[in-house]
Amino acid sequence: MDIMANVLLAAGASPAMVHFKEEVPEFTPKAAAVVVNVGTLNTDFLEGMLAAAEAATALSKPWVLDPIAMGGTEFRSQHILRLARMKPTLIRGNASDIMALNGAQSSSKGVDSTAKSDDALDSAKSVAAKIGSIVGITGATDWVTDGSRCMKVQNGVALMSKITATGSSVTALAAAFIAVRPDDPLLATACALCAFGVAAELASTSAQGPASLRVGLLDALHYATQDDMLALAKISAGDDH
Ligand SMILES: Nc1ncnc2c1ncn2[C@@H]1O[C@H](COP(=O)(O)OP(=O)(O)O)[C@@H](O)[C@H]1O
Ligand SMILES: Cc1ncsc1CCOP(=O)(O)O
Ligand SMILES: [Mg+2]
Questions:
Q1: Coiled-coil stretches, from where to where (predicted)?
Q2: What residues does each domain of the chain span?
Q3: Which end of the chain is more exposed for a tag (fewer CB within 10 A), N or C?
Q4: Is the pTM of this model over 0.90?
Q5: Ligand 2 centre and the CA of 166: distance in Å?
Q6: Model confidence over 42-85: pLDDT tens digits?
Q7: Which homologous superfamily does the CATH classification assign to the domain defined by 2-237?
Q8: Which atom of ligand 1 is nearest to the CA of 193?
Q9: What ipTM goes with this model?
């Protein structure tokens, strides 16, 4: 929760972490986008998540699902599937999450992926087509698809996978970008993944390990200019690996 909220602040968005269903009716109208992150799941949080997804849908607000550790337990999988069927604007996960969401037996031990993002692209396309959501997969290469259109992002550094909640943070950043460009959530998601990756690249020049990269990533997101983004962006359309 710390890094997610700070990533949003550094990027110019305004986070609020609201869990309980009692707050959903009043709070959702104030939000430009909603993130449902199942990372630390419990039955109270789950009620809040279902209510938030319903409220966002009813208000035609973009909402984004992070299906953390899909396939990890029966309880988690059942409820992630239920949320996914509510048709989020975007589902963003790692390769193992998205392959499990497409019905594959999960081989991951928990929140980290054991598969490559390139190998999950077909699963992402299939989930996107079945559900009608945009699907983003992160990893060494990030992919975003609506089932037919695809965008590829090749920014970022491998050390990002050694900082907990970088996945959740980039999901939240994608929600903020979609709030700005609700007409093109696929493009907005690709741009969010790219911006996050570029910030990590800028930070990595002075990082000594995961802890200093984590701090530097927040600084870089805050200080990066449009010129930095345009100079370093590696973003393209299509599904060529
Ligand atoms: N090997 C890698 N090279 C470059 N960037 C990476 C690599 N692994 C992860 N990332 C980046 O780290 C962020 C989190 O992705 P990932 O680790 O796949 O998510 P999760 O934390 O959900 O498993 C994304 O921005 C992704 O692009
Ligand atoms: C360790 C852990 N346990 C539940 S959520 C979480 C963090 C997930 O990390 P990420 O957001 O990078 O997938
Ligand atoms: Mg994750």
A1: none
A2: 2-237
A3: C
A4: yes
A5: 8
A6: 999 999 999 999 999 999 999 999 999 999 999 999 999 999 99
A7: Ribokinase (3.40.1190.20)
A8: 25
A9: 0.99
